[in-house]
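User: Quick sanity check before I run a bigger batch. Here is a single chain. Can you write out its predicted 3D structure?
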Amino acid sequence: MGITKKVTVLAVGLGLVTLSACGSSDGDDGSGGGSRTVTLVSHNSWAVSKDVVAAFEKQSGYKLKVLEDGDAGQAVNKAILTKDNPQGDVFFGVDNTLLSRALDNGLFQPYEAKGSDLVLDEYRVDRDKHRVTPVDSGDVCVNYDKAWFEKKKLTPPKTFDDLAEPAYKDLLVVENASTSSPGLGFLLGTAAEYGDDGWEDYWKKLKANGVKVVDGWEQAYNEEFSGSAGGKKAKADRPLVVSYASSPPAEVIYADPKPETAPTGVAEGTCFRQVEYAGLLGNARNPEGGKALLDFLISKKFQDDMPLNMFVYPVVEGAQVPEDFVKFGPQAKDPQTMDPAKIADNRDQWVKSWTSLVLK
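Assistant: Done. Predicted structure follows.
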């Protein structure tokens, strides 16, 4: 997210993620124009079970084609640049940190998906125009390597303040806020925590305390973080990383043998809530197919399937949350949040200031 640029990489390594990139039928050019193909454009962590795709195709009569187009920020920017001649019919994966950019550029046309009344109230936005449909949520949080802290007899950090303490010097790796969705989410979390006048001073403290910045989540989590399966193989030496509250259950689910407890934990006082949305592209060539797909994305069948494929939480009332999520990766009880309008007003300047402050 967006949110889903995270532990999906673990599943790919084990061949456990099934991506739906269905080909078109005979005589179908795959464009969606006058055809029975509907095209979804997404970031590169889209994942769904084959039987769920089959259910959509049977129910709707449309073949589903998926185009994955880089990480969330890249995908949103490309969708904006190509909005007059879009690659598909529906875009999935714009989150609340980038939503204003998509809406201000007229990326989507209005459509109120069937079943929208079941979307939990806390996730609904743009209620007057219905240009986007909430699909999933997740929390950007600092994760810690339990074994490392136990070995050092050091209590893991719990809050943003803790991360700047001398005890945690040279331990934290974060993603670049200008190139990474979780990196941006973490920056917004600090802005929400310390306010317009305090977040820069906080980052000065983090910089002085040896924070390491890398371009994206995959590098941070799988190459720099000592607590992940990938990090162990890479002999990583940073026991703190900006990731997601759903990362610990992924470390359990994909392990062989499966451990009794997660090897990683979450510093719950460092979480920022992200929500991902989907919308009908403004010049979609198959708008009716796109509407059917949006309806399906908030159906119980898709919402129940989503957590163990994309490691995010459903947003629809009554959807099932996997037991391993409840046990190893519950949503933060009191995450930082921010009004999308405030994000829109400040995001670009905050990122510019952050870049100057932290990277130079």
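The two ends are 27 Å apart (CA to CA).

User: Great, the batch can go ahead then.
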